[in-house]
Amino acid sequence: MLRRRRRVRRGQTNPGDWLNYTVNIASSGSYTLRVRVATAVGGGVFHLAVDGHRVTPLVSVPETEGWQTWQTLEVPAVKLPQGLHTLQLVMDSGGYYNTVGNFNWFSLQ
User: Fold this and answer.
1) What is the pLDDT of residues 37-92, one digit of tens each?
2) I want to staple 88 with a disulfide (CB 3.0 to 4.6 A). Which of 29, 39, 49, 94 is the partner?
3) Of 43, 95, 53, the residue nearest 73 (C-alpha)
4) Using one digit for the tens of pLDDT, what is the confidence trace for 20-32?
5) How, if at all, do strands 59-60 and 45-50 pair?
6) How far is it, in rounded angstroms, from Cα 96 to Cα 100?
7) Torsions phi, psi for 81 (to 5 deg)
8) How many CA atoms lie within 13 A of 70 on its CB side?
9) Contact yes or no for 31/108 (Cβ under 8 A)
10) Closest by Cα among 108, 101, 31, 47 to 71
11) What was the pLDDT predicted at 7?
């Protein structure tokens, strides 16, 4: 399941933004979400959804002291169903400058 990193490379994301990805999940189960983020200021909050239903808690983007100073966040125990689905990275609320943060890649393993 998404053992390759999905390149995101989105900067200055704002509340209400989202990124959609069509994926074929080989088997139902519990996965760990890894997301590479950066922000020079206090970041905002995002979540991951599958077919429009939230599957992670709200995740806060920490200040990494640079817009290109990356940190990998891990969210364990993300339950995913088998089959063809739409994954959506959803920006919920902004931090400083009303930005959520920069996103480099994500993976589910």
Assistant:
1) 999 998 899 999 999 999 999 999 999 999 999 999 999 999 999 999 999 999 99
2) 49
3) 43
4) 999 999 999 999 9
5) antiparallel
6) 8
7) -90, 155
8) 11
9) yes
10) 101
11) 62
41 DSSP 8-state letter: S
* Residues 6 or more apart whose Cβ sits within 8 Å of residue 72: 34, 35, 36, 37
**Calpha distance 18→92 (Å, rounded):** 9
Q: Which two tokens stand for residue 3?
A: 């053992």
Q: How far is CA 89 from CA 6, 15, 65, 84, 94, in A?
A: 12, 11, 23, 16, 14
CB 100 within 8 A of CB 3: no
d(CA 47, CA 79): 13
pTM for this predicted structure: 0.89
Q: Tokens at residue 31, please?
A: 């996965």
In angstroms, rounded to a whole number, what is the distance separating the alpha carbons of residues 72 and 85?
24
